[in-house]
Amino acid sequence: MDEERLSPEDERRLLAIFEQSSLNDYPNPDRVGCPGTPFLKRLATKRKSIPLTVPGLNHVTHCSPCFREFRDFRDQAGRRQRLIRVAAIAAMILVVAGLSLYFMTGGYDVFRKHGGTQSPVVAANLNLKDFVLLRGLPGSDTAGPEEARVLHRGNLLLTVTLPLASEPGNYEFEVLRDPDRPLAFGKGEARSQNGLTVASVKLDLSEISPGAYFWGIRRKSQAWAYCPIRIIP
Looking at the structure, do residues 140 and 59 belong to the same domain, yes or no? Predict the structure, then answer.
């Protein structure tokens, strides 16, 4: 005949009975043979470090004062572990929320000091398909106003159509007026679309004054190439 299997609830009830027995049925007012508080604390917090052959283990189950002290240490350790888990979960939520905000905004601060309001992200296009980019920063008289591409001020999500024959890959973009002093910078991956090479990049131009500037492009670590642009309100 097979042995009767206990349900999980019956097992918990049986363990509770054994625990109450250890707590109350073995009085030891003189604490004879007790292994001491350090052992009981170690048993409650690092029980795997104690071999099963240590005599103190059997003593604890047959000494109500020792078992009571062990149980108190065990309950304290359990509360600490729960607090640690709660703190870890809260920290993880904060990290995930922070990273989500960072990537949603392209790594830029979308909160601007205009009465505490947030600059909305505006979709825009910059078509350089037929433009000949110049290596090195051009002089101010290289191109007239009619040749410059136009961008509106704002927090832009730009779709940039690169010059013909541009290779797909990772590109860097910048807006500047003086050499080595970019006023805005962004990165984007360019892909082939219908025979053209197109990249998407976020650039916040909301703090740049209207006027004439240069748009810089480079692929990987190649040299920068530029074309004139105008930023308007």
Answer: no
